[in-house]
Amino acid sequence: MTLLPSLTMGLFPLRFQLWYIYDFRIISRSKVKNILSINMSLI
Question: Which domain of life, per UniProt (predicted)?
């Protein structure tokens, strides 16, 4: 299990990792917006 992070770091280039983190932030933001809109419609 300790070798897994180092293997993934070696396989994926830094640019792809940064894009993945950025994409994850966008997805989490859209989820928050959806939750807020659902709460507003319930009120």
Answer: Eukaryota
Report d(CA 9, CA 24) in Å as an integer. 17
Instruction: Count the alpha carbons within 13 Å of 21 in the hemisphere toward its beta carbon.
Output: 7
Longest CA–CA span in the chain (Å) reads: 49
Structure tokens at 25: 């932030």
User: pLDDT per position in the chain (43 positions), as tens?
Assistant: 466 666 666 666 666 777 777 777 887 888 888 888 877 777 6
Q: Which domain holds residue 13?
A: 3-42
Q: Which two tokens stand for residue 13?
A: 């280039």
| Predicted pLDDT of residue 14 | 67
